[in-house]
Amino acid sequence: MLLTAAVSAVAISSVSAETLRWARSGDSLTLDPHAQNEGPTHTLAHQIYEPLIIRDMSGQFQAALATDWAPSPDDPNVWVFNLREGVTYHDGAAFTAEDVVFSIGRAQSENSNMKELLNSIVEVRAVDDLTVEMVTDGPNPILPSNLTNLFMMDSGWAEANGVVEVQDVEGGETTFAATNANGTGAYKLVSREPDVRTVLTQNENYWGIGQFPLEVTEIIYTPIQNAATRVAALLSGEVDFIQDVPVQDLDRVANTDGLIVKTAPQNRVIFFGMNMGAADIANDNVDGANPLADVRVRRAMNMAINREAIQQVVMRGQSQPAGMIAPPFVNGWTAEMDGSVSTDIDAARALMAEAGYGDGFSIQLDCPNDRYINDEAICQAAVGMMAQIGITVNLDAKPKAQHFPLITNGETDFYMLGWGVPTYDSEYIFNFLTHTRGEDRGSWNGTGYSNPEMDAMIQSLASETDLSARNATIQAIWDDVQEQQLYLPIHHQVLNWGMSDAVGIDVSPEDDPKFKFFTMN
């Protein structure tokens, strides 16, 4: 099999055991650490930049640039973070509290895709070089959970290179920070060719030397969209580690000498979104009306999806059918809600007729083809399922770099999205996906749904310290989400990492390998 030029660019000659050649289906969207809240983008950033707190490979909190953190004993609206001493950026500049103040403020700005995580923070104060106070609008019991993908930038480097402002990815802007980086992380950027190849080398001045294995000294990262080509690269030894072994190739990889497959449930749900808020929509054949605005149509579409068929045929058993858009890892998930849906074509057709669409309608489905496991194949299966209730679906699949702006810019009526929950709490889902779209919340809510009462409940979660009351509010929000059928859940993803047996690591539920934890035998 002929490999793509991108794969061929990876040196085939033998390299030292410390070089890790890594591939996955899609590239990071940008190196600007605050521009995009997207898994592969964060994964690359985690090698170069660092947050105050990280989750280790098991998903547990671990100190990073902060050594400890706690609410202030004097004021419940203040969290105090003590910073690690002696940390430097890759260019030698010292990491200080002023960089934290700058980074949080930058991540709260208009172009940042991270601002929903920080909307309870009203002030960040540098008490001294190694102490930061974050003032919140009421006590926020889960603030640390919102900071694990919030990376710290050097304010001096940002000013010197004209990147104080966050890159406007949706607007097509390119900045110095999009292709260059200066972090405190275990690896430094050597070269960056978007969608082709990124090379990192170990940071010889990393503060974590002696605390982490750090057996990987060089990383060569090659995005390989084509599944067969990606597997061929692993089988031939051109790459050592791929994050996304196609389900049809699991046995082939696992039964190849020198290779292993490691599998674990992922903290992520795959689902369809629908533009129910518009009076009329562009990509259908119904004039002057929006069929998606009728909850009966949305429920019919939900009942038309045969999740078990997708699980068995498309995913080869490597998924868990979902009835809600929260994974089981998340506070607020319940088995009852997750198992609340079943396929019922007759009932779905009756609902379509009741809503006045007994003859059906046509609509476009926008789908990524390089982001989720079998994303385009899932969408293709949905086309046939919707046809059973009279909905003709025209599929438009494209790379995630072109797909995601359709959602964030409000330019799609029916779309696929996947959502991981790094905070392990429902508030994260609500802030991004169900709150009315506005300046500081709802940036990924492409449904057009707006409910002021729900918005008020979501906002209350950030300062509710009575966890029983907070969980009751979470359940009330979920009841509304489920009743209104805001989304069409498909399944919880299962991760399949393929690697040389020389690579030692367990699968992270976040699908975010942090290579400082890897060992190389």
CATH fold-level label of the largest domain: D-Maltodextrin-Binding Protein, domain 2
Percent of residues in β-strands: 15-25%
The rough form would be described as: globular
Radius of gyration: 23 Å
Per CATH, the superfamily of the largest domain is Periplasmic binding protein-like II
Helix % is: 25-40%
Q: What's the architecture of the largest domain in CATH terms?
A: 3-Layer(aba) Sandwich
Instruction: Please tell me the total number of domains.
Output: 2
| Unreliable stretches | 1-17
Q: Tell me the span between the first and last alpha carbons.
A: 29 Å
> Could you give a short account of the major beta sheet?
9 strands, mixed
CATH class of the largest domain: Alpha Beta
Number of helical stretches of at least 4 residues: 16
Main attributes of the structure:
521 residues; alpha+beta; D-Maltodextrin-Binding Protein, domain 2; Dipeptide-binding Protein, domain 3; 2 domains; 9-stranded mixed beta sheet; 4-stranded antiparallel beta sheet; 16 helices; globular; disordered N terminus
